[in-house]
Write a structure and sequence with these properties.
Elements lengths: L4 H34 L7 E3 L5 H7 L15 E3 L4 H14 L2 E5 L18 E5 L6 E4 L4 E5 L4 H11 L3 E2 L10 H6 L7 H4 L6 E7 L5 E2 L1 H4 L1 H7 L9 E8 L1 E2 L4 E9 L4 H11 L7 E8 L2 E8 L3 H11 L11 E3 L1 H10 L17 E10 L5 H11 L6 E6 L3 H4 L15 E10 L8 H14 L32 H12 L2 H12 L19
Parallel strand pairs: 2-4, 3-4
Antiparallel strand pairs: 1-2, 5-6, 6-10, 7-11, 8-9, 8-10, 12-14, 12-15, 13-14, 13-17, 16-18, 17-18
Helix pairs in contact: 1-3, 9-12, 15-16
Length: about 525
Amino acid sequence: MAMSSRSIGALAAFVFLCSAASMSSSMAATDSFLQCLSASIPSQLLYTQSSPSYTSVLDAGIRNPKFLTNTTRPVWIITPTNASHVQAAVLCGRRNGVRLRIRSGGHDYEGLSYRSERPETFAVLDLVNIRAVRVDAASATAWVDSGATLGEMYYAIGKAGGRIAFPAGLCPTVGVGGHFSGGGFGMLLRKYGLAADNVVDAVLVDAKGRLLDKNSMGSDVFWALRGGAGESFGIVLSWKVKLVAVPPTVTVFNVPVTVSQGAIDVVTRWQAVAPSLPDDLFIRVLVQGQRASFQSLYLGTCDALLPVMRSRFPELGMNRSDCREMTWIQSVPYIYLGSSATVEDILNRTIAMDTSNKATSDYVRQAIGRDTWSAIFGWLARPNAGLMILDPYGGQIGSVAEAATPFPHRGGVLYNIQYMNFWSAAGGGGGGAAQRAWIRDFYAFMAPFVSKDPREAYANYRDLDLGENVVGAGGISSYDAGKVWGEKYFRGNYQRLAMAKAQIDADDYFRNEQSIPPLVAGK
């Protein structure tokens, strides 16, 4: 039915008044939230979008330049220094309808710890000031705050003794909170499993502002924190971990092999060898262009390593000249930052911001044939191609039951694949179309050769192309819609995670585009 000009004018006035009322209500909530925070948190720890330091504080924790622009930013940034500040932020947020996103290191692959894909009024709780590492060498344990980086944690452990270590990731600027929450693996995964496998307690602020430990949060929630997207359940302030034993001398090598030197055959063979080697030996592969680089950490001397390599992996041609002996803590910067890096360099929290990136992941349960590897190297030779990182499983990571932690990629997994591509940050948030297309098309090509039903993915290599939450009319994320991405990350553990979410945060306060939705038992 056609509307008269008078009706259209009345409707426009009504819409304007409603919009104005909504804006007024939003502004009132904004003012009320800030007033609430100011009653419990010092003003120097609070930043609004009009604060002179707002941009520098926000950007300091952004690790992917494509998220510096063209994205929904927080209205406030809170940089607490203790648990009471965090509790106050949660209570003020709940009272005023403001959600919190939690940033520890800022390495979330989709930036969801500090930005939103959709228009939303939210605050970032940046844990940069909650970053202590307290090592007890006598009991081989440590309390590590979520705002610490892996480098800061490793450095403190290395200072405490030359024969203790911790099994976590390679990149020293990654934040502990997000890394542990998604599982966390690195060069010690075959010997000692995930970072999350070695967490023995945690301190959590829940959606009611309560400060909980392992016992008071309950076994289901404690299980969920260790590899199940911990930001879905509250704010983990600190983690108690058990440290692991390493010898006084470890050996590192990096052997590059080009296609002309037989890389296709060596990588094909690596699939059978690497997951079944002695647990002390880890050999990953970086495949880029027409070269495969075999990077290794061995818990022992070169003299002990050489016979193993000659008998188990002679195809690589590794020899004594490839060996670099050092302490475990020296291996941390050597492997990731390069041969000239020092142990002190892992304390640097800044990274180069000259390239943006996109990544995704797969799991391989059956070895990929030589002909397919030949085709893969063809993909890697294309214009705008990215790279692959192959991390072998087996050993300790594969000996843990699939349901023991939320991280399900255990027995039967040969290796994990990370696909990554890069482009100049000068292109801004809208650049990289060709590089993103390469990732998308290559990922599609790989489908027949990787895990199926579901096609598995690693939660710490977050990829929104796998799916996003759908928020229903009641303001709660849909459990069924979340299965699309949730079962890729967590397989059969997704349902238990959703039930744990319902126990601790049934109202879905801690929510992002790939947070665990709540599922009430029996529904």
